[in-house]
Amino acid sequence: MNATTSLSSDAITAAAPAGFDYLIVGAGFAGSVLAERLANAGHRILVVEKRSHIAGNAYDHYDDAGVLVHPYGPHIFHTNSEDIFDYLSRFTAWRPYEHRVLASVDGQQLPIPINLDTINQLYGLSLTAFEVENFFQTVAETVDPVKTSEDVVVNRIGRELYNKFFRGYTRKQWGLDPSELDASVTARVPTRTNRDDRYFSDKFQAMPLHGYTRMFARMLDHPNIKLMLNTDYREVQDLFPWKHMIYTGPVDAFFDHRHGKLPYRSIRFEHTTVQQAQYQDVGTVNYPNDHAYTRTTEFKHITGQVHPATSIVREYPCADGDPYYPIPRPANAALYKLYEADAEAMDNVTFVGRLATYRYYNMDQVVGQSLATFKRLQEAHAASPPKGEERVMAPAHSPPSVATAV
Ligand SMILES: Cc1cc2nc3c(=O)[nH]c(=O)nc-3n(C[C@H](O)[C@H](O)[C@H](O)COP(=O)(O)OP(=O)(O)OC[C@H]3O[C@@H](n4cnc5c(N)ncnc54)[C@H](O)[C@@H]3O)c2cc1C
Known about the structure:
single chain, alpha/beta, Rossmann fold, 3 domains, five-stranded parallel sheet, 34% helix, 19% strand, globular, disordered N terminus, disordered C terminus, binds flavin-adenine dinucleotide
């Protein structure tokens, strides 16, 4: 099957008169990994995607100038899990790529995460790794207990560096002051005393050689998988028999927002092509203190494409629009718990992925969560094989922790 072809409901009814074992909502990482695994295990799968394309937010395509871009913002693949890397390697070759980011601060572009060179260039010093460790200890302000994003950073590198590199960026990104956000947000960002200027330090860092969309097309190219694009699952869920649903959209939308809307942060992406070979020195430049956008990314650094023009994207975080980032605050976690309890009570639906489990997951974590979910579904299937059209595939939803998934 051509994975990018949308099927009509008549075609699907004809193709699968016995119905489907799984109705999978969403063709992003969660939906596509589960479709591939389950189809490979002999199940009949219908994937329904409301957008006009596969690959979810990782979707990439060639823009009008012929430059490979990521319409939903830059997606850099990195993982420490050999299993996850090996699994995806069945569907793509890779281009080694280590992402580098500079932050525009006080008229200079400086490495972020903060490292030895950041401090030396910012203050015109020539500290050694040992001395910079002492420097951080001198400027750090002890905060106890560490509760918020602000506490994490101030506790580690003091208020001045926090104000220059973190406060403005976080306020733009989340529309909230770091003092109002969970510690988890900035806990992800390391501080280094060496000169390592890579944004990520994972063992595997690479980009799919021919892009994400090609990788997804190969994943979904299986005779047991039918794909409907441009279709909300609610339009078709009653048209065909299916036994079990895998849902990867926003969990609050599934339950018609019965407990209220879960807060998400959205982004407006401004894509531009520039008639010059290179626009900036590295893949991404952050603007913590200037402009309404948070960062500018130049795709050719990431994809390695050679082209006389170059395409960039600027990101303007906003409150309204497609849901991208679950907002990590205690009140939102409490609201999610209500939806999680509803999800667990559904025996014929499994909730997987970043939006369905309201978690700030990277791509590799979603792949790990999906592979672990597949294993559980197979175990449940073996323990209780389906009879006729009964909806019996149902393990109660219990998303794996990232630690067990990867
Ligand atoms: C701006 C940005 C940058 C990112 N950068 C990185 C990065 O550099 N590295 C990294 O590892 N991760 C990154 N991520 C995270 C990455 O995008 C996610 O981890 C991953 O895409 C999640 O996959 P998913 O399948 O859970 O969700 P999605 O990719 O969102 O897929 C869910 C799909 O379900 C579909 N859907 C929803 N509701 C319905 C419905 N009612 N009917 C039919 N279909 C429906 C949606 O259209 C969507 O295609 C980034 C995310 C964002 C927003």
